[in-house]
Design a protein that fits this description.
alpha+beta; 12 helices; 21 strands
Length: 459
């Protein structure tokens, strides 16, 4: 096997979807497993990180001055069991590509985040959750990986389970996922029966969540600028796949929509999103939605409304955005969410996009996986200047007081002390990483920031 010169790959400045922070790395595209093995064996002092479509928000897919293995060209379907809905795909396949393949055959992804553009490998590394009740790892049959020494390995909940539960939600730090065997969800139509209801405040939306357990897909848009009696003003959005008989005449049940996409053509000025503009948008959005709305919509409109606008992160301006996604356990869910929302509203910081979701009972064995029972909120803020970072540190303390945690996939600034307090199984994760990656070949800027690996000086 010919050795590969890793220095021939040019250094490129990259970022996550939030566009903050940025970091230079050597981008090495791969098409076959053996290319990854060859590169690992020729790594020298270089550290590695797999990168899919780069849609984690912060620094999780950055690898400063080292090698990012671009998995995007490993995008083949390796096998499909139509009768049982089991698909085997390479790690670089996007969720949208999987859907385009399986929907006409009567299947759908069991879990999907709010965009269809991530790769399946990245979705596993983040253990995505979306509007579903459980995170993605509950539907994974097997993961095919390459370890730091270049050797292949297969893991699952029953085969090398320690590696499996360190990898799901492990942010790419245990090895390179090359392919995924995934259980799909059977559907008779790809259309979604939608029911939306307005809630005047936090009390009402929490009450609606208690009554929504029989809906398989739920999420709420929340107005985080509203204060006082309107704190937590929301729109509950519930969905389940429609039956073919529910559809209007002429609608294809297993339809993959082909929509024209709008695009944000340039970076907006940093001052565009402020308390006044966001408040106006929230009032308009809340007022436009009827008190109660029942309809049938295509799955794209239900699951991926923002995918209709390309480069929408440019709305936040050139400095980028930060997402603050936190979860509070159920026993203190209402008080915890209310307390943090009051802190955020009091600062005058405006989130253009904010969602609230409830996780029901579950046993999550993922060592760094985010979802646990409770309520979580995701909020986006323009980065702009350092003041937002100081505010978020105060929010962190409040989240910790209520036994909560932040989502690593969306984080760009949490301290290692806060991380350890929120994720009590860190040492278990580090033990598994030391077993399969004793030289810490796999690293990221996030891993250094959170103390999961130690920074090395390169001469």
């Amino acid at each position: 096997m010919d050795r590969i010169d890793l220095t021939r790959f040019p250094m490129t400045k990259i970022s996550g979807f939030g566009r903050y922070p940025t970091s230079p790395a050597r981008i090495m595209p791969v098409w076959e497993d053996f290319e990854i093995t060859r590169a690992l064996k020729a790594r020298g002092d270089f550290k590695f990180l797999a990168r899919g479509t780069g849609l984690s928000y912060g620094d999780a897919s950055l690898n400063r001055n080292n090698v990012c293995v671009s998995m995007r060209s490993m995008d083949r379907v390796l096998g499909f069991d139509h009768a049982n809905g089991i698909i085997h795909v390479e790690a670089g396949v996007t969720l949208r590509e999987i859907l385009s393949f399986v929907i006409p055959k009567g299947w759908f992804l069991p879990v999907t985040p709010g965009t269809a553009h991530p790769s399946i490998g990245g979705s596993v590394a983040c253990d995505v959750h979306g509007k579903s009740k459980l995170p993605m790892h509950n539907y994974i049959r097997r993961l095919h990986m390459i370890l730091a020494d270049g050797s292949p390995i297969v893991c699952s909940p029953s085969e090398n389970p320690d590696l499996f539960f360190a990898t799901v939600g492990g942010m790419g730090l245990t090895g390179i996922i090359t392919s995924v065997e995934l259980e799909l969800q059977s559907i008779k139509s790809s259309w979604v029966r939608y029911e939306g209801t307005r809630a005047a405040n936090l009390d009402e939306i929490f009450s609606q969540f208690k009554d929504a357990d029989d809906w398989p897909m739920t999420v709420a848009w929340i107005d985080c600028v509203a204060r006082g009696a309107k704190l937590g003003r929301s729109i509950m959005m519930k969905g389940r796949f429609a039956e073919p008989g529910d559809l209007k005449k002429g609608r294809e049940p297993l339809c993959v929509p082909r929509k024209l996409k709008l695009a944000v053509p340039f970076d907006f000025p940093s001052f565009t999103l402020n308390k006044l503009t966001v408040s106006a948008f929230n009032m308009l959005y809340n007022g436009k939605h009827p008190k109660r709305l029942e309809t049938i919509m295509d799955y794209d409109s239900f699951f991926y409304p923002l995918d209709a606008i390309a480069h929408w992160n440019r709305i936040y301006g050139r400095p980028g955005l930060l997402q603050y996604q936190f979860l509070i356990p159920p026993e203190q869910g209402f008080e915890g969410v209310k307390s943090v929302l009051e802190m955020i509203a009091a600062t005058g910081k405006a989130s253009f996009l904010a969602v609230l979701k409830k996780f029901g009972p579950m046993q999550n064995q993922g060592l760094l996986s985010f979802p646990t029972p409770g309520y979580f909120i995701a909020l986006d803020f323009p980065y702009g200047n350092g003041s937002i970072l100081e505010q978020m540190e105060l929010w962190d303390k409040r989240v910790l007081e209520y036994g909560g945690r932040l989502y690593l996939t969306k984080d760009a600034r949490m301290s290692r002390e806060t991380f350890r307090a929120m994720y009590p199984r860190v040492d278990e994760f580090l033990s598994v990483k030391a077993k399969y990656d004793p030289d810490c070949v796999f690293r990221s800027d996030m891993a250094y920031r959170l103390g999961l690996v130690q920074r090395e000086r390169r001469v």
